[in-house]
Amino acid sequence: LACDNVPAQPLPATGAVTGIDLGITHFLTTAEGGHLSNPRHGRRTAAALADAQRALETLPRVRRDQRSARHRRAVEKVARLHRKVRRRRLDHAHKTALTLVRAYDRIAHERLTIADMVRAPGPKPDPQAPGSFLPNGAVSKAGLNRSILDAGWGVFLGILAQKAESAARVLIPVEPRDTSRTCPPCGHVDGGSRDGEKFRCTACGHRDHADRVGAWNVALRAGLVLPHVA
Q: Among 175, 172, 178, which Cα is nearest to 225's?
């Protein structure tokens, strides 16, 4: 369903601006240091979904018009669990986006390309053994990919853009490269400054939460002035 010329419903100006960093441990972190936990809807339903899929796989494969009542119930159970995850993810995205547009006039975020982020690593041929391959981290990357897809960043950013436009808020996408490796106070870029969720600049010694550093840098790249961030 598409509607044209739908009037916007601007929200009252708040005078506040922020940058946000999307992550796995924390779904979202603001430049002020506020964290929103990741609900992990898919992981919470994974066990029940795996049981339902195993039960379905034990049934003989038949054409759709030849399915028994038991087969149809098994198929519907799997579909119902997928719908449940999708509804929860959408509900979380709508509520989070609404909270942001109500609180801030301008919001900066990373310009993410989800399809590239979840791409499987390519094989690494072993130069010392033709026909053999070196470890390429595919297993750990697969786990990270599942977490990224479960978080639903793409869905969230799409909903945030819709709500920002309707509320006459400004959404500013920025280049995400090195946002969590750059020290906001001094500008030094070093991957060694980050250790998990901890950030300690190898140049000036600034300490902070890594996700908050990312959100702060996102705001700086968008040209936002954050007098309350220090």
A: 172
